[in-house]
Each structure stands twice: as C-alpha cells, then as structure tokens.
Write a structure and sequence with these properties.
Structural class of chain A: mainly alpha
Strand content of chain A: under 5%
Order of helices and strands of chain A: HHH
Radius of gyration of chain B: 24 Å
Mean pLDDT of chain A: 57
Shape of chain B: globular
Strand content of chain B: under 5%
Oligomer: heterodimer
Low-confidence stretches of chain B: 1-17
Number of helices of chain B: 23
Largest interface: A-B, 33 and 40 residues
Number of domains of chain B: 3
Number of helices of chain A: 3
Distance between the termini of chain A: 9 Å
Amino acid sequence: MSRTDDRTNKSNYSRSASEALLWRRIRVASVGATVAGITVLGSLMLSSQQVASASTPLSAAVVPVAVGSDNPPAPTASMPADMPGMDMSGSSPAPTEAPMPQDMPGMDMGGSSPAPTEAPMPQDMPGMDMGGSSHGAAANRPLAPVLGTFSGGTAAVLLTAGMLRRKDQSADLVKKAARISGRGKK
Amino acid sequence: MSQDLRPRPKQPSRSKSSPRLDRAIKARTDPDDARFDRQPGEPLGRDILKNRYVSAVMRSRWYPGAFQIPIAAVFGLVAYELLAGPPDAHDNAGTALMWVLWWPLLPLLYVLFGRLWCAVCPFAALSDFVQKLVGVNRPVPPFLKKYGIWIIDATFLAITWADHVFGIVESPWGSGILLLLLTFAVIVSGAFFQRRTFCRYLCFLGGLSGNYSRTGMLALRADQEVCATCTSKAACYNGTDTVAACPLFSFPRTMDSSANCNLCANCIKACPNDAISITVRKPTKELWFLRNPKIEESFLAMAIMGIVIIQNVTMLPGWADALAWMNRTTGITSYPVIFTAVFAVGVSIPVALLTLAAKVASLGNLESTFKNFARFGYALIPLDVAAHLAHNMFHLLAEGGSVISTVGTLFGGHYTGSAMLVGNGPIQVLQYTFLALGLAGSLYTLRAITHRRYLTPARRRFTMLPFSVLIGILTALNVVMFMYPMAHRM
C-alpha cells in the first residue's frame, strides 16, 4: 500500500470516526436534554397541579351532596341572595329546641334502648375497602419529588452510561487506528 | 446395612483434571452414581415449530415486539394510574390490573407457557431500549453470577414483608413506588451490563418464574447431534448481525432446563441449521429428569411456600384475633414488629421442615443433608405452584369484578355488580382441585427423582418416606387454610 493510499484511508477513517462520535454526542445530548426537560417540566406541572388542587375550594355545583348530609350546599354566584322565601344570610338565629314531653305517645325516651346489633356486612360490598390500611398512606402523595428524583436519577444513569460508551468507543477507535497504521507501516 | 447402603467415598471435584483424580472417579464404588450419570436426559416431545403458523410467528421479525408494544402501553396506563390515579385501591384501575388480574394469572402462564411472559415483559423491552441507546455492555459481575439467586430470594422476601408493613398491594402509591424502583433498577442494569442481566440475575419475578417454568408445558431444546456439527460459532448464543444474542445467557446446545429460557425465539432465528425445537410436554416433567440441583432454588421454592402460607394466614378471619392475642401476651403494640416475627416464623417453617426431612432421608440414602435439601426441594415445586395458584384464584375470582369496574370507569363506563365473579363454593372447589393436582405432581416428581437417583429399593424407601410426609403436611396445612373464608383486598 502506498503512502498516499494510507493517508487517504486514514483520513476517511478518521472522518467517519469523528462523524460517529459527533452523532453519538448529539444523541446523548438530546436524550439528556429530553430527560432533563421532562423532569423539570413534569415536576413543575405536577407541583402546580398540587398547589392548584390544594388552593381551589371545591365548588358545590360540581360536588354532589351526600344524602342525609348535615351541611347544606354553599350558595353559588348564580343564586340571587334575595331570592324570595330564602334566607341566604349567615346570621339567622339558631333554632331553639322546644322541650319535648317525656311521655309522648309512641316514643320511648328511656335510656334502656337495646344496643344496636351489628348486621353482618358482605365482604364484596361495592365501595368498601376491606383491606383497611391504605387510606392514610394514599392521602398525601409526594408525586413531584418522587418523580423528580426518579427522573433525575435516570438521567444521571443514562448520561453516565452514554459517556462511558463514548469513552469505550473512542478507545476502540484508537486501537483500530493503531492497528491499521501498524499494518500500513509493515 | 446392605451392600448398597455403605458410605460412599467423597466424590472428587471435576473442575481439576489429573490422572489421579480420573482414576479415583473411575474407581468409585457407589453403583448409583455411575448409573445416574448414564441416565438419559428428558425425552423431547412433539415439536410445535413443525406447525407452519407457529413457526411463522416465532421466526417473524415482529415477534416478540408485536406483543411487547400493547403490553408496554397497558403497563404505562397501570403506572400512571398507580402514581396519579385515585388514591384508594378500591377505585384504582392500576391496582386492579396489577394485583387482581396480572399477578394471579402469572403462575398459570408459567405452567402453560413456561417463561414466555419474560419475553413480552415491558421491563425487558425497556432494558433492551436503554441498551441500544446508551448501553456500555459490561460483563455480568461475578458476584451476581454466584449469588444472583440468593439476591432474588432476599428481594422476594423483602417485597412481601414490605407489602404487609408499608402496604404495597393495598396502596396504589406503594405499588407505584415499587414499579418506579424496579424501572430504575432495569435502567441501571440495561445501561451498564450485557443483555438482560436484570432479568436473569436480579428480577425477583425472574427467580419465581425460573422455578415455576420447570413445571411448564413448553420446552425449547436444541438437537445435540446437529449442534455437534455446527460451524456458526454459537450463533444461537451470540446472535448474528440481524438477530440479538440470547438475552438470558442460555446456550441451547447444553440447556437442559427451561428456567432460563423465555422463548424469545432469538436462537430459532439465528440457528443456521434449524436445530432448535419447541416441544410440548407434561407439566412438571422437567423436574423428573433433574440433574444439577441448586440449594438456592430449593430454598426459593420453600420460601415461596412460606410466603403463600403467610399470605393466607393474614387473610383469615382469625388474624385480627391473633394480633390482639399477641399484643396482650407480649405487650408489643407495633404491627411491623409483630408481623416481622410472624413472617420470619412463617417462612422458616417450610425451610425447617425440608431440612428435617433431608436430615432424616440422609440417614437412609447416605447422602448429605445439604444434597438432599437441594435435590428434593424441587419435588415440592408442583405443590408450591398449586398452592400459589389456589391462593391467587381467590383474588382473581373473588375480586375480579373490581377490574371490570375500575377499568370501565376509566373509559366512562359504569359497573354496578359485585366484585365477586363467582361464589365462594366454586372458588374452593377450584382451590382444592389445584391442591390435589399439586399433591399428585409433587409425589410423582419425588418418586421420579428418587427412582432415577437410587438403584436399590431400600434407598428409595428411606428417601421417599420423609419427603412424602413433608408433602402431606404442607398440603394439609393449605387445605385447612383454604377451608376458611378470606378477607378481600379490593
């Protein structure tokens, strides 16, 4: 092999190697940027959602009132305050309890009422969680920090691995180049 | 003591080869050893790759990717629901899909299709993706090769313990955190190590599936005679330019177990000689031809048995009374402390019973307790699978309605029916059927291993008796537990 051929091969080889390295760098950088972007944006979105959900009062218009609930629905903006027959102010006098006669017919006011017996509850009652230990843990979920840590850790791992791979490939290319140049010299 | 029962000389290690050692090996006096070495391996059944449709699917470039994509999509939905969905397990589709549908069906999948789930598992797909993206492809660390199954054993026990103490199954958030931790471990493994190191050496489910798939009805094997003439430099193991290498580091030519084969079909696609076959066999058949038992796999089988017992006990109506009694007796009010003690005892019971049976058997078959523990722990795998399946059938059939209701709600539907898909009666019948099959499978496996290993009736008898008693005790324990109504999780 002539010296010129050798030089041409070398330059071609180094060009393709440098191209490969460049693409690798771009790929690693884009992956890193994407992961970092998702982390930051995701954390921000989640934290803003949490703040919003914590600060926004529940609208009575969208929350169905439970049957038998003691709390009346809060007045909404669409309801006129001076609606006839409705007292919407909060200053209504508390109702006074009228004394009830002890011997009212049909009423047993004594303290000897039988203790209520617990009716056996079916295990598969819809809407019932028979496990019983999940409510406390599930009530407050620190989603943003957990996802942030996960994404950050993942990004760190991917970047480290990417850099290690690039280093390995560079070392391989150097070895190959040395081999080719050694073969050229012979 | 008969001629056959005399103590045998210590077997020299085969790793070092010297004329002196070779002579010692040739001169060994125990006839059972020589006979066992001459035993043929597991006979191959009907090759389903001869069916052109199956063959086309397995050789297709879309297999297993075509299955991985929808499963990964469902996995994404599950992860989203667990982390950001309703906080109550009862309303969460992620919890229902994961713990009421997928988890109970898993052992059944292993029995029917071996470790096929691992080929389509989203974690495996994620590992491959990370590897393609940034993979460094470092070799598997030697400590993982050596202690991998022990790590899996410990992880499995730790997750079960954590489930009861911190609430993983009953808390979508807990399940979500578990999923995130597993995902992170998979990413680390895929980024730094070769192939699917996580699946082979670290996945707690991989250990379970490895054990259970030995009872599986599908087996991938290579034709030894064709392989002997192969010149392709182990393409089935190393892969080719177009086909990836075996993800679980299995070499089909020497493979005699389905524990580390996920039927990904890479070897089928890469083999230039068409020497790979997938055969259908009877459940548990692989265990009958056991050659190289490992104590860690026997231990895992016993640990899973213990876990199933504990899971059953904590779902029984008397569990709350037992906790109250322990509280009164010991004065300890902390649930984690009490549960940790119960957990340690529960897992230790099957391990201790197997050790005892191995000790008794060692007096009769003149092999060490250690060897007996390792070999005959495998005989309990069928009962193990059966007990696990019986337990899981309760979750699937008694809580399965929650899958319909939660997933239906997710897509705007409304399900008003009960969580129970069938009544307690049919569930119990199914549970006892599984237990009966498991009992039969374990006893038959015990007989097959014993008869292949020992020549003389005396040795066989002395070996079979203690292990049969152990199988009977564990079956009875399960039968008693399944007699009582169990509490629902969902």
